[in-house]
From TrEMBL:
This is FecR family protein. Pfam families: DUF4880, FecR. Residues 19-58 form the FecR N-terminal domain. It comes from Herminiimonas contaminans. Residues 116-211 form the FecR protein domain.
Amino acid sequence: MSEVGVMRRPEAIDPLILDEAADWLMLLGAGATDEERRACERWSKRSPEHTRAWARAQLLLNKLGGLPSALAMPALNREPAAGRRAAITRLAAILALAPASWGIWKVIAAQDWITDCRTAVGEQRVMHLADNSVVTLNTATAFNVHFNSTQRNINLRSGEILIQTAREATANYRPFSVSTTQGLMEALGTRFSVRVYDETTHLAVLEGAVKITPNQNALQQQVLHAGEQVTFTKNAIGEITAADNVVVAWTEGMLVADRMRLADFAAELSRYRSGIVHVDPAVAQVRVSGAFPLRDTDKALAMLVSTYPVDAQTRLRGHWITLVAR
């Protein structure tokens, strides 16, 4: 049978070699010396697997038009800093994927690294805005602030925030709003959380009220009151359900699960650690309940495997976890 036009999956490469390839990419992206370039060439010829890994790394550079500055900058510090290590891990994880998936990184880099305020993976922080409103940022969150004489707006690009709005004098009142790709949420004196997904935005109101206006359906507005939550798209607002402080348990460093699918649990935990948590389909539907620490995700995984019939297989020095049946 002819092989013309047949799509082949990329041959698997040892994760440790991919990790080394990512390290070389970082080093060369920061401006390597001639000796370092020669050392990289020697490394790439160490074995056929090393050669394949480096060819894949060069293909990645060609697809992305160069190493994104968000990854390259940590390499300027040649010491083994946490930021550089995290960037190498993310590059190694990308190299392990099919080339067709690599373009996603360019979109992420363009959106998340040009913002006024952001947090890294696993980082949380509290910010006080110019009007004395308080914003708590969850892991991997990025937003821009637009305050002027007529408005107070936060444009949430990625991640999740909890907002406590500040009161303004009636004479100088400016509406406070949060905008996402899906729509605009105007606060009516309130405390609320907003989380953005690929195609939807989730809003939970804990105090006061918030008015939602979808970006492509301004006629479908909806006011949510304290104790209500909803997910909406650019065109439609979903079913309103009850909400309480569990929805912002992350501000206390906890992931609270109530019969959560293991696949969903792993996706949530992945938001707080560098690398990937993958779930074998055989255990994806296992239901998980409990409170798990987000500031120590290794401990959370240890609690999981000690309670449920699953094991955690480790690759890439702990940065690639696969949950499998025990």
